[in-house]
Design goal:
alpha+beta
Length: 86
């Protein structure tokens, strides 16, 4: 009986693991916001172009387009993170 219980437990664990994996990989990710066409925004401080490039980016927190070079000078330290999983 012990061998039968072990095989049932292993089969149950395999079925649960397969179900969890299938659920996690279920479908493509969907964007929560469509920012639309990228506008051309001006740089307000030309000195910041020495450190940051002039490029318009989507601000996820504010949900609006912003000029990347306008982040400097800043009152707080600026952390720039260039990683996108998709």
């Amino acid at each position: 009986m012990t061998i039968r219980r072990r095989s049932i437990a292993r089969l149950t664990a395999a079925v649960i693991a397969t179900a969890v994996l299938a659920t996690a990989c279920g479908g493509p990710p969907s964007a929560s916001v469509d920012p639309g066409e990228r506008p051309s925004l001006p740089v307000t401080n030309a000195a910041s172009l020495e450190v940051l490039p002039e490029v318009t980016v989507w601000d996820l927190g504010a949900k609006e387009w912003v000029q990347f070079a306008n982040f400097l000078p800043a009152d707080k330290p600026l952390l720039v993170w260039f990683w996108a999983p998709h």
